[in-house]
């Protein structure tokens, strides 16, 4: 993705926000995987199924899938 920005020569603020959001989702996925190792899977499932998490991911990616 970084190379794509270099080819275009400029980076818009929206591109940076989108990239930051995608990085944050990636970090969230890593944390959730760690939680799966530490906690009962039903706890993690409740977090993943929470409306707030689903709406945040959908708002960034346009998809409800993690």
Describe this structure in words.
By secondary structure, the chain is an all-alpha fold. It has one domain (2-61). Helix content is 79%, strand content 0%. It is built from four helices and no strands. α2 (13-38) runs antiparallel to α3. It is elongated and about 45 Å long. The two termini are 20 Å apart. The model has no long low-confidence stretch (mean pLDDT 68).
Keywords, please?
single chain, 66 residues, mainly alpha, 0% strand
Ends apart, CA distance between termini:
20 Å
Quaternary organisation of the protein chains: single chain
Low-pLDDT stretches are none
Element-by-element helix/strand order: HHHH
The total number of structural domains is 1
Specify the number of helices: 4
Average pLDDT confidence is 68
Radius of gyration based on Cα positions: 15 Å
Strand content: under 5%
Helix share, percent: over 70%
Main β-sheet description: none
Shape descriptor: elongated
- SSE class: mainly alpha
What's the number of extended β-strand segments? 0
